[in-house]
Write a structure and sequence with these properties.
250 residues; alpha/beta; 9 helices; UPP_synth-like; ditrans,polycis-polyprenyl diphosphate synthase [(2E,6E)-farnesyl diphosphate specific] activity; Isoprenyl transferase; EC 2.5.1.-
Length: 250
C-alpha cells in the first residue's frame, strides 16, 4: 500500500522537481529524549543514518543540489561534553558519504575556521576525495559551522578584499555594487538558489538557514523529527512544492 501511495504522491507533484533542496535536519535531541535515551547524541546517531536515504530519494527524483544543515554557529557554543560527540558523528557521516562508489560530490559550506582544526581537516579531506574521483552526481552541500548572517558577512568581506586587491576604492565599489556582486561570494556561489527548503520537527522558522538564497524559496515544515523522516514525508514535500504557484516575490 505504501508503494502505491508514494507513487501517487510523486505523480501529484506534476513533474515539478526542485533543482536545489535545502534540509534542516531538526529534532534529533527531542527524538532521543522521547524515545527514552539518556544520551541525546543517540538521536544524532540515528538521524545520521537517515542522511544517505534522503540523498538517495533526492537522486531518484532528479534533484541536482542538496544542502544539509548539520551544525550551526550557535551549536558551537554547546558544552564540550555535547559538542565533541556531535562533531565526531558529523565526521563519520561525511566520511561515509565520501566512500568510493557513491556518486555524490561533497561541498563544505560554513565558517570552517571556527571549527576545531582536526574536525575541519577531516571534513575538507573527505570532500576533497569526492572531487578527486571526478564524480558527476548530485552536489551535496554540507553546512557545518554555518550561520546565515555569518555567510553574508563573509561574502561582503571577501568582496571588499577582492576589490581592495584590484585597487578599487570604497566609493567606486559603492557606485556599482549590486546583489549579484554579493551572491558571487556566498558559500553556494555558482549553484542555483534553493527552490524548496524542508524543516523537520514541526518548527516553523528558518533560524538563519540560507537567509540570502531562500528569498524566493518554497518552505515545507514537517511534523516528524528528523530520525523519523520517511520517503513518504519527502514525497509529500515534493507534492506540496509541485502544486504551488511560485510567485518569486511578486
Amino acid at each position: 500500500m505504501y508503494g502505491l501511495y508514494e507513487k501517487r504522491l510523486f505523480q501529484q507533484a506534476g513533474g515539478k522537481i526542485p533543482r536545489h533542496v535545502g534540509v534542516m535536519l531538526d529534532g534529533n535531541r527531542r527524538w532521543a529524549r522521547e524515545a527514552g535515551f539518556t544520551d541525546v547524541n543517540d538521536g544524532h546517531r540515528v538521524g545520521a543514518q537517515r542522511i544517505a536515504d534522503l540523498l538517495g530519494w533526492c537522486d531518484e527524483a532528479g534533484v541536482e543540489v542538496v544542502t544539509l544543515w548539520l551544525l550551526s554557529t550557535d551549536n558551537l557554543t554547546r558544552p564540550a561534553s555535547e559538542l565533541a560527540p556531535l562533531l565526531e558523528i558529523i565526521g563519520d557521516v561525511v566520511d561515509e558519504l565520501a566512500e568510493p562508489g557513491l556518486p555524490w560530490r561533497l561541498r563544505l559550506i560554513g565558517a570552517l575556521d571556527i571549527l576545531p582544526k582536526e574536525t575541519a581537516d577531516r571534513l575538507v579531506a573527505a570532500a576533497g576525495r569526492t572531487r578527486a574521483e571526478g564524480r558527476t552526481g548530485m552536489e551535496v552541500n554540507i553546512a557545518v559551522g554555518y550561520g546565515g548572517r555569518r555567510e553574508i558577512a563573509d561574502a561582503v568581506r571577501k568582496l571588499l578584499q577582492q576589490h581592495a586587491e584590484e585597487g578599487t576604492s570604497i566609493e567606486e565599489l559603492a557606485e556599482v555594487l549590486t546583489v549579484d556582486h554579493i551572491a558571487e561570494h556566498l558559500y553556494t556561489s555558482g549553484q542555483p538558489d534553493p527552490d524548496l527548503v524542508i524543516r523537520t520537527s514541526g518548527e516553523q522558522r528558518l533560524s538563519g538557514f540560507l537567509l540570502w538564497q531562500s528569498a524566493h524559496s518554497e518552505f515545507h515544515f514537517c511534523e516528524a523529527y528528523w530520525p523519523d523522516f520517511r520517503r513518504t514525508d519527502f514525497l509529500r514535500a515534493l507534492r506540496a512544492y509541485g502544486i504551488r504557484h511560485r510567485r518569486f516575490g511578486s
